[in-house]
Amino acid sequence: MKIAITGKGGVGKTTLAGVLARLLAEKGKKVLAVDADPDANLASAIGFSEDEVEKIEPIASLKDLIKERTGAEPGQSGSFFSMNPKVDDIPDKYSLNKDSIKLLVMGAVEKGGVGCICPESALIRQLVKHLVIARDEVVIMDMEAGIEHLGRATAEAVDAFIIVIEPGLRSVQTAKTIKKLAADIGIENIYVVINKASPGLDAKNLVDSLSGLKLIGTLPSSPKIQESDLSGLSPYDADKDFVAKLDEIIESLDLK
Ligand SMILES: Nc1ncnc2c1ncn2[C@@H]1O[C@H](COP(=O)(O)OP(=O)(O)O)[C@@H](O)[C@H]1O
Ligand SMILES: [Mg+2]
């Protein structure tokens, strides 16, 4: 089961990814959680302690590793470097472990010009491909609002591409942009989840605006989740009803 989560900033991607990682681990699955958002904070959403979070070294910041594997210094977009560096030992060496969850943090890649790729992005791209195609764990990937790091072959191996929206047309706009990018590289299993729905929400407008996007469920706005982010508790431990609701949504996809 390989799931990628994306959507506009602040809609709840990391919250959902964190809850999902814990939920599937609780069900006895081995989980590989991937923080692919440059603004990385999946670790605390999973429930790693502050001390553990501080120890994290994102892959993109491991200069020696990048040089060793690609043959070029990070940031050198004009130089020659390997586009298929060795990555298969990276997940076990560089992940943070908690019960049956492994977390890999990709980190921020210096953006080059249009169509330009630098050594660290080549390494991360290859690593993401390896995770999705060759590892046998459940992979949960927390992404930014786009499909960075995903090539066609990787995209084809993703079982569910979940775009999170909140009750607001701006997040739907972002969802549509993402859908277009995703469709361009052949991603088909694109689903939408509404998060932060208030109790009396009249979602008709929102649902109407989703033309062509497949809505698979709605998650409530939860004061407990909001408070958990303030107190440092993981959302999984904070609100069991929210967890149960997300479980239902994922089960309905019937992923293997
Ligand atoms: N269902 C929810 N109810 C209340 N607050 C939520 C809910 N989902 C997420 N949040 C809060 O919204 C903020 C943004 O969530 P986050 O998961 O970090 O979004 P993203 O990763 O998409 O930027 C966080 O403070 C989080 O606790
Ligand atoms: Mg996030």
According to CATH, the fold-level topology is: Rossmann fold
Shape: globular
> Which architecture would the CATH scheme give at its second level?
3-Layer(aba) Sandwich
Class by SSE composition = alpha/beta
CATH homologous superfamily - what is it?
Answer: P-loop containing nucleotide triphosphate hydrolases
Determine the mean pLDDT: 92
How would you spell out the order of helices and strands? EHEHHHHEEHEHEHEHEHHH
Major beta-sheet overview: 8 strands, mixed
Report on this structure.
The protein is α/β, with parallel strands linked by helices and 256 residues long. It has a single domain, classed as Rossmann fold, CATH 3.40.50.300. Helices cover 43% and strands 18% of the residues. The chain has twelve helices and eight strands. The protein has helices spanning 13-26, 42-46, 50-55, 63-70, 90-94, 119-134, 152-157, 169-184, 204-209, 223-231, 235-238, 240-253, and strands spanning 2-7, 31-35, 96-98, 101-105, 138-142, 160-165, 190-197, 214-220. The protein has an eight-stranded mixed β-sheet. A hairpin with a 2-residue loop joins β3 (96-98) and β4. The longest helix is centred in the middle third of the chain and has 16 residues, at 119-134. It is globular. Residues 7, 9-15, 195-196, 219, 221-222, 225-226, 229 line the site of adenosine-5'-diphosphate. The site of magnesium ion has 5 residues, from α1.
